[in-house]
Specification:
There is one protein chain. This protein has one domain (about 5-15, about 40-410): Orthogonal Bundle (Proton glutamate symport protein). Helices cover about 80% and strands about 0% of the residues. α3 packs across α15 (about 295-310), α9 packs antiparallel against α15 and α12 (about 230-255) packs parallel to α19. The protein is mainly alpha-helical. The longest helix has about 35 residues, at about 30-65. A two-stranded antiparallel ribbon has the order 1-2. The chain has helices spanning about 5-20, 20-30, 30-65, 70-100, 110-115, 120-130, 135-140, 150-155, 155-170, 175-200, 205-220, 230-255, 260-275, 280-290, 295-310, 315-330, 335-350, 360-370, 380-410; strands at about 105, 110. It has 19 helices and 2 strands. The radius of gyration is 22 Å and the shape is globular.
Length: about 425
Amino acid sequence: MKLHWQILIALVLAVLIGSASSSLEAIFGLSLLASFDFIGSLFLNALKMIIVPLIVSSIIVGISNIERDGSFARMGGKTLLYYVSSSTIAIIIGLFLVMLIEPGIINGQPAQQVLGLHADTAAVAERVGGASGGDIMAIFLRLIPSNVIHAAAEGQMLGLIFFSLLFGYFIAHCGDNSQRTLKGFFQGVFEVMMKITDLVMRFAPLGVFALVAAVVARSGLAVFIPLAKFFFTVVAALLLHLLVVLPLLLKFVAGVSPSKHFHAMAPALLTAFSTSSSAATLPMTMDCIEKRSGVSNQSSSFVLPLGATINMDGTALYECVAALFIAQAYGLELGFAQQFTVVSLALMTSIGVAGIPSASLVAITIILAAMGLPIEGIGLILAVDRILDMSRTAVNIFSDSCGAVIIARSEGEQTKLV
């Protein structure tokens, strides 16, 4: 059975068993939730274990093989243009749907009065801290790490990627002997890491099952009822971007088959949904894009690690919808200038705070502060944030993969998707 079918079956079983975990626990006399957490943590740890060596070796190998004819700058410009364009489109979709559906208005009243808060506001405030625009600048300072080993240990991927890009670029400008030695070494490391990635992928169905079952067992399905309007607004916007916008870009910009690319990326999409982490899914994303979609390592190693760090279409969309939902819930009338502020901040914060724990909460807090709304508004959305986090991560991953295909095709590559 192909891997994506195994993962899909694991997802269905996870929902069923997670929903019934309370009764099963009484029957077997053991904590299923603890078992789910243990297996899920093992799988996530295995994915995180291979991120740094895989990304460093992949970027260095890919960049060192780029010809000295301006290809590096050309690919960089195309990649950044794609990131900004796709994220902006996603935010506009979110803005349009949230203004059309008005999830913050329930039975003609602001949702704040109907729902109340779903979390302790003190706990929310502690998680997001005193978020401000300065937090964004602090993240961009990590672009150039003072200690690259420390950046790797702390998982500061932006700085690690920047260093790897520089290292690979200047390998190509070294003498022949140094070039041959360094390229051979990192090529060997990359091949070993891809084999380890294949091994970890074999256990993906088990890891996905445990992660999703734990989420369902904790939150249950009842949490969606009071926030159904908001939940389905976000999901509808994400699906519109995932199933309409990105396939159109694949079809008319890259000239490839969207259905073939969906099929190729299915294991990565399902893993992204279960892990809620673009970085943790990155090894599988690279494996799928190179082996199943046929994109070269030279393109994928440049586009995908950068995309997993700064290209967050789903996150940007969610930030916009969540911030406007909270504004509606407090009865705030939004003018064009305020909507433009939300769109701009959602774009900047989706890039700037992507590497922070609870990144979306920090970003939404910055937007709320700009709109003059209280931080406690975040408590309205926390009940369904985990499932929406899983959904938007899958959109992030697919957008990254579409970017890799589009850049590869623009560079004249022949993929398996034509």
